[in-house]
Amino acid sequence: MSIYQEIILEHYRHPKNYGEIKNPTKKIKLTNPLCGDRIEMMIKLVDNIIVEIKFQGQGCAISQAASSLLTDYAKGKSKEKLKKLDREFMIKLLGIDLGPNRIKCALLPLEALKKLLI
Length: 118
Ligand code: FES
Prior knowledge:
Blueprint: H1 3-13, E1 26-31, E2 38-46, E3 49-56, H2 61-74, H3 79-83, H4 87-94, H5 102-116
Antiparallel strand pairs: 1-2, 2-3
Helix pairs in contact: 1-2, 2-5, 4-5
The chain binds FE2/S2 (inorganic) cluster.
């Protein structure tokens, strides 16, 4: 197993920022239409900086690990900086090559985050 696969499994088993925020600034629920997996993400914003971010839901190892890694990255960052994140960023964050179906799993948390930043 590669180091990246191990990191993904570790985040899947022990996701960071899993749970709920009391009184979030915004929250959103999204479903991956291909598999029905769901993610709920919520943020607390202060002066356009994400001071708290959490997610919950059911999903495959890739979507859960991507949510864990992305929420960790987003904490403490500005809305403007996070709005620029794209598909390439998610691939780098996960560190593995993803096929056309699996990439949707990785992009689900990014889509959720982007909608929260609108
Ligand atoms: Fe459903 Fe990955 S298989 S999000």
